[in-house]
TrEMBL record:
Keyword Disulfide bond belongs to the record: no
Pfam family, one: PAS_4
Coiled-coil features, chain-numbered ranges: 408-446
Protein name per Swiss-Prot or TrEMBL: histidine kinase
C-alpha cells in the first residue's frame, strides 16, 4: 500500500516545513503558512534565517542553530520543548512567540542528512497563562512549559560549554590525549598531537596498535606503570622516533610531557591523560646555537685578526688565542679590566676613555692604538667593537676585533714625508711638461712639413716620372758613346736626386709608404756590409755586436738600410774618416716608466740599434736641433739637413723612436728602437739585375695625368707588354667589363672622380679574385697607406720609378697572382679570420676610429658604449672576437670579460687600455692587450697573438 505523505502532512492541523541541507525552505503545509502568516510561493527557496531573522548570539538564535547542528551531526531527531522566537507578520509587525519544535532528519542515499522536517507548535498562550480561570491552559501546564524552557536553556549552556571545551582542546598549542583502560585506548586526541605524530586514525585503537613504531622506546612500559600504580610520570627533553607517514622514514621528536592517571569517583584508575609540548624545534635551535658558538670560537681562534667579546658593562669575558700569542700575555690574564696592560702608555688613557663612552652610549666602538708585541715592539691596530642586542633592543654584549694597520700607518708617514718634497716633484713635473711641450712643438713642425711635402710630392713625383720615362725611352734611341747620351745620363741622375729629396721629405714627415715585414737585422746588416765599408773608406773600422738569440724586427727593409747608412755616414763625417765605429743591437723590453712623454709608443718588446762613434761630440745647443728638418752643421752644398730628420721620421713611423746622446769630447750615440715582429723572420729578397725581364701579358693602365700615362705605357710596351689605358677609375671599370681579357691592373692611387682607385680595385677583384693589381703613386697617404704603412698584401711602386723597377714590380705582381677561386673558397682558406667583432668603447671618437681600423682589417663591426649593452649584444648575436675598453662607465671591462668568458670559453678578447697591465688578461686566457694610443698594426699584432689573424693578412682583396 502506498501513501501520499505530502497530502497527509498537508491535512495535518500542526505546522510542518521541509528544509534542505542549507536550511532553505523546500515545502510547507497550510497550517505552517497560516501560523507564520506567509505565502508558499514567497517561502520556497528562502533561507529560514533570512525569512525569520534572529541574532545568532540571542537565546532563540543559539537554541535553534544548536538543534539543527545536532541533527546534522548525529543524524537523529532533536526536540526543543520551548523556544522563544519572534515572528514578523507579512505587514512587518513583530510579535514575541513561544514554540515547541521537533527536527526530524531525512537521510539521503549516502546516509547523510539530506532534509530536515520541522514540526512546530505555537505554545505562546499556554506558556504565558497565569490565571486559573483561563480556558485553554492552567497554571500547572504553564509551569511545566516554563520548567522545560529552563531545562532547554541549561542544555544550551551545557552544549555551549562543551563546544567551548572542544574548541580549547582542539586548538591548544600543547598536545593533549586521553587513553582509557589498561590497553590505553585512544578516546580523545587534539590537533597538536596529530601534527607531532602525523595524521592517522587513532580513536578507539589501543596505543600499541595505533603507534607500533614506538615499541621498544620505553613509552608503553611507562604507560603500564602509571596505570598500575596510579602515580603520574613526567619527563623533559624525551626523544621519540615516529613514522609520520605510512612507509615513510622514522623521524626524531623531542617532547616535554606528563602522564597523569585519570580516576573514577571510587579512586580507581580508569585511564591516563597525556599532556605535553613538542620541543623539537627548540632543541634543534639550542643545538645549532651551541654549534654556532663553537664555530665562532673556532673561527675567532684561527682568524688573522684578533677577536674578543665583552659583557654589556664593558668587561672582557673572552679573548682569542691570537691576542695572547701576539702579546705574549698569559692565557686568561687580559679578561675583565686588565686589557689596557698591553696598550702603549701614550695611547692607554684615550683608549680607555673611548671605550667607556661607547659602553655608556651603546654606540659602535672604534679606536686606533698601539699594542705591545711579544718581542716588546708596539704595532698599530684598528680596534672596533659592535654591540649585540635582544629583540627588545637591550644591549646584551660586545663583539670586538683588533686589525693590524702598522704597515698602512708607515705608508701614511712616508706619504707625509713625500708631501714635504712636493715642490721638488712639481719642479720635476714642470720640466717634464716643458720637454713634452718641446716634443709637441717638434711634432707640429713635422706635421706642417709633412702636409707641405704631401701636397708637393704627388705633382712633383708625377713630373719626375714623366722625365724618367721620357729619358729612358730617349736613351734607347741614342748610342752609348754619343755625347747626347752623356747629357741624358746626367739628366737621369738629376731626376734620381729629386726623387731622393722627395722621399726624404716624406720620410721625415712620416708620410713615406712603408712595407714592414719580419726581418733579421743581422741579415740586413750583412747585406749592406760592402756598401757600408765602401762609404766609410779604409780609415774606418766597423764592429757589429749582436746577440745569438736576436728577435726579428717588424720594419721596412729598404728604409731600415737607408736609416743605418745615414747614421754610419754621419758618424764617419764626425770622426773625419778615421777611427772605430760600433753598431750594437740587442733585445729590449720597454716598460711604461721608460715611455713617459712618448704618447705614440706602447710598452712592449723592441730591437735596440745603437750607432756609436768616438768623434768630438755635439754641443748641447746644437744637440737639441739635430732632428729638425734642414738643420745641418755641414758647409753649404755638403748636406741637405734631412739625414737625421729622415731617420727620426722613419723610426717614428715604424712605431719606434730615435734618440741621440752626446757630450763634447765623448762621442755620440744614436739609438733606434724598432718594434719586434710577432712572426719568424722572412728571408731578404733582392732582385738580381739579370732577373729583370718583361713579358707579353696584357696590362690595363689607369692614370689621370696624360703625360705620366703615356710615359708609363711606353715603358710597359718597351718591356713587351700589351697596354690598354684609362684616364680614371670609372672609365677603367667600364673598359674592364667590356673587354675583360687582361692580366694585370696597374693604377695610380690618387685620382679625381667619385669612384676611388681602391673602390675600383675592390670591385674588379670581387668579380675576378685572381686579378693581380699594382698601385703606383707619388703620394698615397690615405688610399692604401695606414699609419704610414702600405696595407699588407698590396703591391706598390712609388713614383718616380725606373724601367727596371717597373719591370720587377710587374713580374712580382703577375707571379704572385692567385689562382681563380670563388668567394666561398677564399673564406674557407681563412678560417681563423674574425668575421664579426664586437667593439665596446664609451668614447665616441675613439670608437669611430677603432671601427674604421677593424673595417680596414676586413671585419664586420658591431659597436657598443657600455658594459651592459655589450653583455646584451652577446646574448642576442654571434661574434668571433671582443675588443673592449677597460674603463667603462657602468661595469669595468675586466668584469664584462669575466662574464663573457663564462658564457663563451673560446672567444678571443682584446683589452684596450691606457694602463700598462690588465690583470684579468692572463687569468682569463686567450686575451691580448693593446695600450692606448695604438694603430692598426698594433691591433693586427694583437689578433695575430691570439691566432686569429696573421700579420701579413688583411681583409681586403689586395
Amino acid at each position: 500500500m502506498t501513501h501520499d505523505f505530502e497530502r497527509i502532512l498537508q491535512a495535518a492541523p500542526s505546522p510542518f516545513v521541509l528544509l534542505d541541507s542549507e536550511l532553505r525552505v523546500v515545502w510547507a503545509n497550510d497550517a505552517y503558512l497560516q501560523v507564520t502568516d506567509r505565502q508558499l510561493e514567497r517561502l520556497i527557496g528562502k533561507d529560514l534565517f533570512e525569512e525569520f531573522p534572529s541574532d545568532p548570539e540571542s537565546e532563540s538564535g543559539r537554541m535553534l542553530r544548536a538543534s539543527f547542528a545536532r541533527v546534522f551531526r548525529d543524524g537523529t531527531t532533536d526536540h526543543l520543548p520551548v523556544i522563544p522566537y519572534p515572528i514578523a507578520s507579512a505587514e512587518g509587525k513583530t510579535e514575541d512567540r513561544y514554540w515547541s519544535a521537533t527536527h526530524t532528519p531525512i537521510l539521503g542515499a549516502d546516509g547523510e542528512v539530506e532534509f530536515i522536517l520541522q514540526h512546530t507548535q505555537d505554545i505562546t498562550e499556554v506558556y504565558t497563562a497565569e490565571a486559573p480561570g483561563e480556558a485553554r491552559a492552567g497554571p500547572a501546564q504553564a509551569a511545566v512549559l516554563r520548567r522545560a524552557h529552563e531545562v532547554t536553556q541549561q542544555n544550551l549552556e551545557l552544549d555551549t560549554g562543551i563546544r567551548l571545551f572542544k574548541l580549547i582542546f582542539e586548538q591548544a598549542p600543547n598536545f593533549m590525549v586521553t587513553l582509557m583502560g589498561p590497553n590505553h585506548v585512544f578516546r580523545t586526541v587534539n590537533a597538536a598531537y596529530l601534527r607531532m605524530i602525523g595524521k592517522r586514525d587513532l580513536i578507539g585503537k589501543p596505543a600499541r596498535e595505533a603507534l607500533p613504531e614506538i615499541a621498544g622506546q620505553g613509552f608503553f612500559e611507562m604507560l603500564d606503570e602509571v596505570y598500575r600504580t596510579g602515580e603520574a610520570v613526567s619527563q623533559q627533553g624525551a626523544e621519540a622516533w615516529v613514522q609520520r607517514s605510512p612507509g615513510g622514514p622514522t623521524e626524531r621528536v623531542v617532547v616535554d610531557f606528563v602522564f597523569q592517571p585519570l580516576d573514577n569517583v571510587r579512586g580507581e584508575t580508569i585511564g591516563i591523560v597525556i599532556q605535553g609540548n613538542d620541543v623539537t624545534a627548540h632543541k634543534l635551535a639550542e643545538t645549532k646555537l651551541r654549534e654556532a658558538e663553537e664555530r665562532f670560537r673556532t673561527m675567532a681562534h684561527t682568524m688573522p685578526v684578533h677577536v674578543w667579546t665583552a659583557t654589556a658593562d664593558g668587561r672582557l669575558d673572552w679573548v682569542s688565542d691570537q691576542i695572547y700569542a701576539f702579546s705574549g700575555a698569559a692565557p686568561g690574564s687580559l679578561v675583565g679590566d686588565a686589557w689596557p696592560a698591553i696598550i702603549h702608555p701614550e695611547d692607554r688613557a684615550e683608549a680607555i676613555a673611548t671605550w667607556a663612552e661607547a659602553v655608556e652610549t651603546g654606540a659602535v666602538y672604534e679606536s686606533e692604538f698601539r699594542l705591545r708585541r711579544a718581542d716588546g715592539a708596539y704595532c698599530w691596530h684598528l680596534v672596533r667593537a659592535v654591540p649585540t642586542r635582544d629583540d627588545q633592543g637591550a644591549l646584551m654584549r660586545w663583539v670586538g676585533t683588533n686589525s693590524e694597520i702598522h704597515e698602512q700607518k708607515e705608508l701614511s708617514r712616508q706619504l707625509a714625508d713625500l708631501n714635504t718634497t712636493l715642490e721638488e716633484r712639481v719642479e720635476k713635473r714642470n720640466r717634464e711638461l716643458e720637454e713634452l711641450h718641446d716634443r709637441l712643438a717638434q711634432s707640429q713642425r713635422v706635421e706642417a712639413v709633412g702636409n707641405l711635402a704631401g701636397g708637393v710630392a704627388h705633382d712633383f713625383n708625377n713630373l719626375l716620372q714623366v722625365m724618367t720615362g721620357s729619358l729612358t725611352m730617349a736613351a734607347r734611341e741614342i748610342a752609348a758613346d754619343s755625347p747626347a747620351r752623356v747629357r741624358i745620363d746626367a739628366a737621369m741622375r738629376a731626376v734620381e736626386r729629386g726623387a731622393s729629396l722627395s722621399s726624404q721629405l716624406l720620410a721625415f714627415s712620416r708620410r713615406q709608404p712603408l712595407q714592414p715585414r719580419s726581418i733579421d737585422l743581422r741579415d740586413l746588416f750583412s747585406d749592406i756590409d760592402d756598401i757600408m765599408r765602401s762609404a766609410l773608406g779604409e780609415g774606418m773600422e766597423v764592429e757589429l755586436d749582436t746577440p745569438d738569440a736576436l728577435w726579428p724586427a717588424y720594419v721596412d727593409a729598404a728604409s731600415t738600410q737607408n736609416a743605418v747608412l745615414n747614421l754610419v755616414i754621419n758618424a764617419r763625417d764626425a770622426m773625419e774618416g778615421r777611427g772605430k765605429l760600433k753598431i750594437a743591437v740587442e733585445n729590449r723590453h720597454i716598460g711604461p716608466e721608460e715611455l713617459l712623454g712618448e704618447p705614440d709608443m706602447v710598452a712592449g718588446d723592441y730591437l735596440e740599434v745603437k750607432v756609436i762613434d768616438h768623434g768630438p761630440g755635439i754641443p748641447a745647443d746644437t744637440l737639441a736641433k739635430v732632428f729638425d728638418p734642414f738643420f745641418t752643421t755641414k758647409p753649404v752644398g755638403k748636406g741637405t739637413g734631412l739625414g737625421l730628420s729622415t731617420v727620426y721620421g722613419f723610426a717614428r713611423q715604424s712605431g719606434g723612436r730615435a734618440t741621440i746622446a752626446s757630450h763634447p769630447g765623448a762621442g755620440t750615440t744614436v739609438t733606434l728602437l724598432l718594434p719586434r715582429a710577432e712572426t719568424a723572420a722572412e728571408p731578404l729578397q733582392w732582385h738580381d739585375p739579370s732577373d729583370i725581364a718583361g713579358g707579353n701579358e696584357t696590362v690595363l693602365l689607369v692614370e689621370d695625368d696624360a703625360e705620366v700615362r703615356d710615359a708609363t705605357a711606353a715603358l710597359l710596351s718597351d718591356l713587351g707588354y700589351r697596354v690598354r689605358t684609362a684616364e680614371d677609375p670609372a672609365t677603367a671599370l667600364k673598359a674592364a667589363r667590356q673587354a675583360p681579357e687582361f692580366d694585370l691592373l696597374v693604377s695610380d692611387v690618387v685620382m679625381p672622380g667619385e669612384l676611388s682607385s681602391r673602390d675600383m680595385a675592390e670591385t674588379l677583384q670581387a668579380e675576378r679574385p685572381d686579378l693581380p693589381i699594382l698601385f703606383i703613386s707619388g703620394y698615397s697617404r690615405d688610399a692604401i697607406v695606414r699609419d704610414g704603412r702600405v696595407d699588407a698584401g698590396v703591391q706598390f711602386l712609388a713614383k718616380p720609378f725606373t724601367k727596371d723597377a717597373l719591370a720587377i714590380k710587374v713580374r712580382d705582381a703577375l707571379s704572385s697572382a692567385p689562382a681563380a677561386k670563388t668567394k666561398a673558397d677564399a673564406v674557407q682558406e681563412q678560417p681563423d679570420r674574425p668575421r664579426h667583432v664586437l667593439l665596446c668603447e664609451d668614447d665616441a671618437l675613439i670608437r669611430l676610429d677603432l671601427a674604421d681600423i677593424l673595417s680596414g682589417l676586413g671585419t664586420e663591426v658591431t659597436e657598443t658604449a657600455s658594459g651592459q649593452e655589450t653583455l646584451d649584444r652577446l646574448q642576442a648575436g654571434q661574434f668571433d672576437a671582443l675588443l673592449i675598453d677597460v674603463g667603462l662607465p657602468d661595469i669595468s671591462g675586466e668584469e664584462v670579460a669575466t662574464r663573457v668568458r663564462a658564457q663563451h670559453p673560446d672567444m678571443p678578447i682584446i683589452f684596450a687600455t691606457g694602463q700598462a697591465e690588465v690583470p684579468s688578461a692572463a687569468a682569463l686566457g686567450r686575451c691580448a692587450v693593446v695600450q692606448k694610443p695604438f694603430g692598426d698594426r698594433d691591433l693586427e699584432r694583437a689578433f695575430a697573438s691570439l691566432g686569429i689573424l696573421s700579420q701579413t693578412e688583411t681583409a681586403t682583396a689586395f
